[in-house]
Amino acid sequence: MQIRLLKDRILSKLMLALTIFSVSLVALIGAGLYYKSVPLLRDNTWGSLLFSSVWEPMKGLFGFFPFIMGTLWVTAIAIIISLPLCLLTAIYLAEYAGTTVKKIVNPLVSLLAGIPPVIFGVWGILFVVEFTTGYSVLAGGIVLAVMIFPLIVSIITEVFNTIPRELKDASLSLGATKWETVRKVILRKALPGIIAAIVLAVSRAFGETIAVLMVCGNVPVAPKSVFDPGYPLPALIANNYGEMLSVPLYDSALLYAAFLLFVIILVFNLVSRIILNRLERRISG
Amino acid sequence: MTNAPHISVQNLNVQIGNNLILKDVNINIPDKKVTSIIGPSGCGKTTLLKTFNRLLDNTADVKISGKVLVDGENIYDPGAEVTHIRKKMGLLSQRPFPLPMSIYDNIAYGPRIHGTTKRKDLDQLVEHYLRATGLWDEVKDRLHSSATRLSIGQQQRLCLARGLAVEPEIILGDESTSALDPVSTQKIEELFLELKEKYTIVLVTHILRQARRVSDYIIFVYMGRIIEFGPTEEVLLNPQEELTREYVKGFIS
Amino acid sequence: MRRRKFEEQFFKLLMVLSTIVVAGSLFLIVGTIVVKGLPYMSLDMLTKTPEGGFYSGKEGGVLNAIIGSLYIAGGATILGLIISIPVAIYINLYLKGKSFIPNTVRMCFDVLFGIPSIVYGAFGFILMIYLGMRASLLGGIIAVTLLVIPILIRTLDEIISTVPRELHDAALSLGATRWEASKVVLRHIIPGIITAILLSFGRAIGDVAAVMFTAGFSDNIPASLGEPAASLPLAIFFQLSSPSAEVQGRAYASAFILTVIVLVITVLANILSKRFSKHKI
């Protein structure tokens, strides 16, 4: 009889410990990466690391500017391509499409979400690079745009579903067309959610490694046009981890890059989650 | 009141978030009688019922103060053992929730966790309680099929049998017939009348006719306060309080 | 009036086209992989390890990578489940009192879910240096476990929160301890747990960045946790950069195999989660 209660008590403590462990992963990862960046930060200022363009690890010169620009270019291109397409798709799915269309499209989108990054990379080389632009930030942006389709579509569709039916009906019964209702009522109402989706998509794009690496060209110079090759931060880390223990401070520099990614993505995620949680609470309570 | 109180509530206050759900509740629930808690929806009657077996503890942001004495022991005493308290009380919820297992295992679940493991004993228990709730003849050939395949009315009787199998002293019913058809409702009500020989029964109901049919005493709750408590006929036919009179008016006219 | 109607039609057309692009991109990608990969598929590809080194040897298959991937994804999913099931139960069924605590915990997992795998890989790498481990199957499993924990917890959390509270209450009111009542809830969500396993496995088997640092690569099938292990995504990545057409062919075949595995897993997960959501009330 007492054993049951004891078992419950022990298991509850164990679960608490596991919960604390997994929650503290956020802090552990941040602290671990920062700790490894300290040697680099001792010799360099944040300003010089972020804004210098000179990348010569052998000489101990670590300027991340080209990589940061590479990341920004690829991300910007991906969002510019993806957002209008996904927004229109989400509107279509939420407001226009019949059940048959939804039954076909939704599974396809979820299958797309399951395709591994490396497969996108192979497709990028075989299709995007081959038929369009060569190894460039544009190729990276296109591949990334397709990769973030499912994320943006599913979040925006969900946001649309939080908008009360009555609001749409009110607009429609005033004689507005469906599209006018979408533009003037739904989009306006969904704006915070759309922003949250963009922020989430941006942070996803920042961190995407292998697919982008495979099609971007990886030249450590800040790109000047969409047809220039670029070298995003995650690609830098992934391409050089092999040598990083043989050159002084190189490991620190690469893990600093990982730390940068971590911090930016953490902040972006927090912001968008807070917005999305607010939206959800608005409908549930 | 001839019987000594079985549950005695003293200065009970319940707050969820910023809402005071129950305000300064004092009540003695008599032993081996049927007591119905009535009142408009949202008045706190289900909350009151759930304080008796401490299921309310699991609600987010809940604050409970005061005492609930069962057999003279305060169940909110920090040293009180929750599982022991709950074993004393069977709960029959609004809709039946059979556990995701067979009919047999549903009944055997309670006895098993409380230490009955012999197959023979369990067989006996299962048959006994299925007979007690009039289910035996209906299900004896499919004891090992999933409980979810039963009709809603059968499921509710199964849940009652399941609760009885842990040998409680008190049965709590939270609008236990609201999801049932009239025939099943009648069966459950008849069971309550039979069971009060051995158990103290507390029911939450919004059906005054049901309260009149089955209960010996009635508690009328309004906006988190107990307005009136007394024998069924008195409360329903000759209420002392204005609020009670207003509420039961629909019943009488 | 005409202009309004035109505008309506125009945007509707744009929407349909967008939907075709978004949904159709799947066919483009899978089509490319099938066209390129299928010709290189053979029994040898599935049953032999590469001969003469994965980067230069022209013979053999990618069995090393298939097995390595299964080990890593399987190991990580099992380890992840051992951690995630208790956590999901704890935040749903144990935590009580202030509601902001479970909400904050959930927020942490949302954030962890968004952390890219390269960061998990880098962190795994630091962890391995700290522990004095070499690139190995175990290292890969640990890094990928960290990656799948948020996926598993979020999925399980969502599923458990759809279980009617009364079911949990029913067990509790029979005098069950919280753990015994939790077991009833777990039993109720078995199909959901399988969905979570599939999602986690699918993500784990396709991930490159986390295993790159931690699992290494090898021509052989790992015989112990301490040996480096190949994986399908890395087999694709490494062999694609080879100048030899035969080795590139192995990369395409690997891409085909990985795509098939992942598609099957995703389809299964979708079917299951649909069936599961039909049952919830």
Walkthrough of the structure:
- The complex is a heterotrimer of chains A (285), B (253) and C (281).
- Chain A has 285 residues and is mainly α.
- Chain A has a domain at 68-240 and 263-284: MetI-like fold (Orthogonal Bundle), CATH 1.10.3720.10.
- Chain A has helices at residues 2-23, 25-43, 46-51, 65-96, 99-114, 117-133, 137-161, 165-173, 178-207, 210-215, 233-240, 250-284, and strands spanning 55-56, 61-62.
- The longest helix of chain A is centred in the C-terminal third of the chain and has 35 residues, at 250-284.
- Chain A is globular, with a radius of gyration of 23 Å.
- The mean pLDDT of chain A is 91.
- Chain B has 253 residues and is an alpha/beta fold.
- Chain B has a single domain, classed as P-loop containing nucleotide triphosphate hydrolases (Rossmann fold, 3-Layer(aba) Sandwich), CATH 3.40.50.
- In chain B, 37% of the residues lie in helices and 26% in strands.
- In chain B, strands 6-7-8-3-9-10 form a 6-stranded mixed beta sheet, with helices on both faces.
- In chain B, strand 7 (170-174), helix 7 (182-195) and strand 8 (200-204) form a beta-alpha-beta unit.
- In chain B, helix 3 packs across helix 4 (119-132), helix 3 runs parallel beside helix 6 (152-164) and helix 6 (152-164) packs parallel to helix 7 (182-195).
- The model of chain B has no long low-confidence stretch (mean pLDDT 90).
- Chain C is an all-alpha fold and 281 residues long.
- Chain C folds into 2 domains: 2-40; 43-279, MetI-like fold.
- Chain C is 77% helix and 0% strand.
- Chain C has helices at 2-37, 43-47, 63-94, 100-114, 117-131, 137-162, 165-173, 178-188, 190-206, 209-214, 232-240, 245-279.
- In chain C, helix 6 (137-162) runs antiparallel to helix 9 (190-206).
- The mean pLDDT of chain C is 91.
- The chains are: A mainly alpha (285), B alpha/beta (253), C mainly alpha (281).
- Chains A and C meet through helix 1, helix 2, helix 4, helix 5 and helix 6 of A and helix 1, helix 3, helix 4, helix 5 and helix 6 of C.
Short note summarizing the structure:
The complex is a heterotrimer of chains A (285), B (253) and C (281). Chain A has helices spanning 2-23, 25-43, 46-51, 65-96, 99-114, 117-133, 137-161, 165-173, 178-207, 210-215, 233-240, 250-284, and strands at residues 55-56, 61-62. By secondary structure, chain A is mainly alpha-helical.
